[in-house]
Amino acid sequence: LVWLLVLSLAWLGPALGGEDEDEEVMEEEEKEKKEEEVLSDEIKEEDNVLVLHEHNFARALSEHQLLLVEFCECPHCGQGCGQGQVWDREYWQGGEAMAECGKDTPLATEFGITSYPTLKLFRDGNRTHPLAYTGRLDSQGIVRWMQRRAGPSATLLQDTDTSAAFINSQDLVVIGFFKDLKGEAAQAFFEVAAEMVETTFGVAEAAELFQEYGLSADTVSLFKKFDEKQTNFPVDPERGLDTAELTRLLRVHSLQLVMEFTKETSNEIFSAKIPHHMLLFLNKSSPDQLSLQDDFRAAATGFRGEVRWPHGRDKEGGFGTPQPQCPLFPAQVLFVVVDVTGHGADVLPFFGMTTADAPTLRLVRMENNRKYQMEQDNFSDSAIRTFIQAVLDGKVKPHLLSAEPPEDWDTRPVKVLVGKTFEQVAFDETKNVFVKFYAPWCAHCQAMAAAWEELAERYKDREDIVIAEMDSTANELENITIHGYPTLHYFPAGPGRKMVEYKSARDVETFSKFLENGGMLPEEPPVSEGRGQPSCPGLSPAPDGSGDGSCRM
């Protein structure tokens, strides 16, 4: 029996006394009753979920082979941690979980809980090595993740009939062919299968199956009903099978050669972690624009991300651990069609575009969100290939967004910067410039707006200090990447184009102390990230699950 649990970490603080003595007595009795309940190892259930604390945790481990435990700190995971709200909603939709929360308990310390909510799986009563939850943050994802760990991660295929039926059962399946299912390579394959819960895995050791699919040695094969029908990844007999690289290979080759950006495919597109995305923006209601997909697809075949094997070996040389001096993967490009009148309309502001700009092409370097644009759109497959290669070779400069500067941008206490004016202001060698990079929709930015205005008023008559701000959703800089909001950078006067990131408290007095000390603060205990200094997400298609409430760009 697999239980989905919520770990209650609540300290039961003393009840506040009232003026009425009888009320005090009643509150004291209620307090004692609750303390007795907490000290007991009795395990209570709320809506089919076990509620745990430090005194009944050991009992729960001993009574259940698999325990999925959620550690929370805010009431019902809805106050103070935005990701908790998402998780809790999903649990309730599935009728499986709720959250009763607290913080700073011995259990949180024991299991290294630093962000909330956190899920951990405990197996066979093992308290020292819980498994961190790595699945999707929704009820369906949690169920799939648990099912994969509760049972075998891959189906054993014993003959050609069962293997053929298995392959035909899905649009995409993965089969590991191993001559020894207890060997290290097979065990590594099972680990990958346990993590990739969205994909169906099979495993085979019968000699007739090796022969049926043209294999002679241990191999991981990807079978698809689209594009290449069978893609083989041989296992190197010396280096074995590297789980991280196999996972990446499978994610890359599981995607269609050309993806369409939709609500259903967006998670696949970004979780594959392909370093470059080539985007064709078009209006699918236009037959002329739809026809552009043929050349776009033809160009994609050259950038699939073929494997470059270590030490100059060819693809038959085997799949093992990559060597630093010889990358296992060359640059890869994922080709994506974006319908500007469909789901893709939501991302147009990120590119500074409107529906009228279609059809057009953009290449995005995912590590820093740098965007590249052809000088003139040419939709032939040869032109697309040439453009991509030029970007990969560093011969094309990024296309940077910039709003127009307001007429009064430098007359306000807070100077309003845009991409076009940033260099001349921030790197003025006669000024110390303190800049807030923000997003208009960011709640944390809005919360500190008053403090930033007050700071600017305090220093508006100082010739050597400039307090400024820039909307980073409408302006981009070539050498500065903003990952979350608000981000504060200090640019000291003098040569050298120096930049100091400010990471302390966001109040006027601390800001002022920082400025008066030339962009430095006295050594103080660090502020706990995600609590004293929360950040809003940057523009990102999918949250990364980080504990500080931020999604990284």
TrEMBL record:
Location of the Thioredoxin domain: 391-520
Region (Disordered): 19-40, 517-553
Keyword terms: Disulfide bond, Endoplasmic reticulum, Isomerase, Redox-active center, Repeat, Signal
A GO term from the CC aspect: endoplasmic reticulum lumen
InterPro entries per UniProt: Thioredoxin-like_sf (IPR036249), Thioredoxin_CS (IPR017937), Thioredoxin_domain (IPR013766)
Subcellular localization, as worded in the UniProt entry: Endoplasmic reticulum lumen
Positions with biased composition (Acidic residues): 19-30
Major subcellular location class: endoplasmic reticulum
Protein name per UniProt: protein disulfide-isomerase
Annotated gene: Pdia2
